[in-house]
From TrEMBL:
This is BOX element protein.
């Protein structure tokens, strides 16, 4: 997508847990947005939340509730 030039500020990536630092840098260069389903990602075994890597690259992700069939949609209690 990056090489094809189709990434832009109208594109939102979700989760991004398996994204490499290089991929996150490409996302930042293209000014895309990101959304993290933190509650579900915390319950996924062996997969970390890429928040710190995104912040370091200049991406400020939003929070998403993802799917309530996998985990509760309540992230704050």
């Amino acid at each position: 997508m990056h090489d094809a030039g189709v990434q832009g500020d109208d594109l939102t990536f979700v989760h991004c847990c398996c994204s490499s630092q290089e991929e996150i840098a490409m996302m930042a260069d293209a000014s895309v947005s990101a959304s993290l389903g933190v509650h579900c990602e915390l319950n996924a075994q062996g997969i970390g939340i890429p928040l710190n890597r995104m912040l370091a690259a200049g991406i400020r992700p939003s929070l998403s509730g993802d799917t309530e069939t996998k985990c509760s949609g309540d992230m704050f209690t």
